[in-house]
């Protein structure tokens, strides 16, 4: 099975997904997102997919995928397609999808929508690049050729997507209402392949959602600003765009965002206390949440690149 033609799979039912990164154990915030996405699709009699987002290989923790799968199954979740059960839209691990991302990149390149960039964050700061929500905005200083200072950088060049050519993205978030972003203000031309050769999250996620025939993306509110970038990529590639629902982030008792590193938020610790799956599901869904109006939602550090 190959997708190198970038043909989305045809589906006749709603399709949802949960797409965790195997960088550690799932915490209760992740699990709430997973449960909301899963319940939505099961209510509609649709297809649920588990996709492992392991493109950031240096951050991938050996064994984490198996532990996640075990946790999700213990909780009572199931999926119709995934790395452990197969399916028609695989592979379901991003690390196995290089050829597909290469094909997408080739298509963008051929359309003149990419360019190599050697700017470091420091370069952008020193050039007084305007500051967007996610750091300095790259407005394409090197879109007409690599900048003079770093013509042949030792570490290679990243590849940027010319988002600035068609920067306005609008969509209707199922939970948060109408959204409008200007990519020139949010991030400018953004990286789709890193200088170390790794695929950027924005490219891999957009291509996978489109080709796997996902019709609804339910995910954490911290990814709201990724969505316009992903839609911009799907748009220029003529791919179908799913519906989005960004759910509120979970807080701990002191009002901070749940932390992955904090062992107290892990499912493993609840299991160790002897809670049943049903009790655990109830507890997960009852967690206090951040409302989308809270400014903290906007300031959450964007962990994926
Ligand atoms: Zn640059």
Ends apart, CA distance between termini: 28 Å
CATH fold naming: Rossmann fold
- How many strand segments? 11
Q: Based on helices, strands and strand pairing, what is the structural class?
A: alpha/beta
Top CATH class: Alpha Beta
Descriptive report:
With 305 residues, the protein is α/β, with parallel strands linked by helices. It is built from ten helices and eleven strands. The strands form five sheets. A three-stranded antiparallel beta sheet has the order 3-6-9. Strands 1-2 form a two-stranded parallel ribbon. α6 crosses α7. The longest helix is centred in the first third of the chain and has 16 residues. Zinc ion binds next to loops.
Give a summary of the structure in a few sentences.
Helix content is 30%, strand content 15%.
SSE layout:
Blueprint: E1 15-18, H1 28-43, E2 47-50, H2 64-74, H3 98-110, E3 114-117, H4 121-126, E4 131-132, E5 135-136, E6 158-161, E7 168-173, E8 177-182, H5 183-186, E9 190-193, H6 201-211, E10 216-220, H7 227-236, E11 243-247, H8 267-272, H9 277-285, H10 295-299
Parallel strand pairs: 1-2, 10-11
Antiparallel strand pairs: 3-6, 4-5, 6-9, 7-8
Helix pairs in contact: 6-7
Residues 117, 119, 138, 141-142 line the site of zinc ion (ZN).
């Amino acid at each position: 099975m190959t997708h190198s033609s970038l043909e989305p799979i045809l589906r006749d039912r709603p399709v949802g997904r949960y797409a965790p990164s195997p960088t550690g154990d799932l915490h209760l915030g992740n699990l709430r997102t997973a449960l909301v996405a899963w319940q939505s699709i099961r209510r509609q009699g649709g297809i649920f997919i588990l996709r492992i987002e392991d493109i950031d290989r240096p951050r991938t923790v050996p064994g984490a995928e198996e532990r996640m799968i075990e946790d999700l199954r213990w909780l009572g979740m199931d999926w119709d397609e995934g790395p452990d059960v197969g399916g028609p839209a695989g592979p379901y691990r991003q690390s196995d999808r290089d050829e597909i991302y290469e094909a997408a990149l080739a298509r963008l390149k051929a359309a003149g929508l990419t360019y190599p960039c050697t700017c470091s964050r420091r370069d952008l700061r020193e050039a007084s690049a305007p500051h967007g929500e996610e750091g300095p905005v790259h407005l394409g200083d090197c879109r007409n050729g690599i900048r003079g200072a770093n013509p042949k950088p030792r570490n290679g060049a990243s590849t940027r997507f010319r988002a600035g050519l068609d920067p306005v993205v609008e969509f209707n978030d199922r939970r948060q209402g109408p959204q409008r972003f200007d990519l020139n203000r949010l991030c400018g031309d953004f990286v789709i392949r890193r200088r170390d050769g790794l695929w950027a999250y924005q490219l891999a996620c957009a291509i996978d959602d489109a080709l796997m025939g996902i019709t609804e993306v339910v995910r954490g509110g911290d990814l709201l600003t990724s969505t316009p970038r992903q839609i911009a990529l799907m748009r220029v590639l003529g791919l179908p765009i799913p519906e989005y629902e960004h759910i509120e982030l979970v807080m701990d008792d002191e009002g901070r965002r749940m932390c992955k590193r904090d062992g107290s938020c892990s499912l493993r610790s609840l299991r160790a206390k002897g809670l049943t799956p049903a009790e655990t599901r109830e507890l997960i869904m009852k967690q206090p949440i951040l409302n989308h109006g809270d400014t903290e939602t906007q300031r959450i550090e964007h962990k994926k690149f």
